[in-house]
Amino acid sequence: MALPLSLRRSGDPESIVLGEANSHVADALGHPANWPFRTAILTGPPRSGKSLFARWFNGQDTGKAIDGADKIDETDLFHRWNAAQESGQPLLLVSDAEEWEIALPDLRSRLGAALHLEIGLPDEDMMAVLIRSHAAQRGLALGDGALTYLVPRAERSFAAIERLVAEIDRLSLERKVPATLSIWRDALGVVRGPEQGRLL
Fold first, then answer.
1. Max intra-chain CA distance, the chain
2. Is 6 inside a domain boundary?
3. pTM of model > 0.70
4. Fewest C-beta atoms under 10 Å: which of 5, 14, 26, 86?
């Protein structure tokens, strides 16, 4: 499944591709009343859409999202958590840290009871839609057979897929040729490195 989470046009930078890796997050954000202590923590790999989810949640007027919560002073964050509890406002905390180590005991105990949501790695279906989405944002025509060739060879990573499409676009513009097999192969070699590139 791949749907824009907002009402924006398909291919808009603010749209979120939904798939196996993140559909549970979308479901949970739609029902914040079910969160323990009305608090959820969202984590996931780089470029996986955590900030887009946070902006979408803030736009629904059902709660408050704090992006980069792991970088905020812990005492300040504890006060924000208390304020949300007093107002009854659901609170979504987005963390970029692989392991969010919280030193303040009171904050650690409160957030330990929160709903923990993690975006996983994209499967092949989601990778295909991500490639199409990034290409559409750039106005890039990938050519017939692109997804069949690229998906099984691309790194299973949100950030790597974004870099791959950017590299295809760069090479196509630089060489002034359509994005076909030779461009796809060379872009994969750049993104995956020369050792992996020789295997493509």
1. 60
2. no
3. yes
4. 86
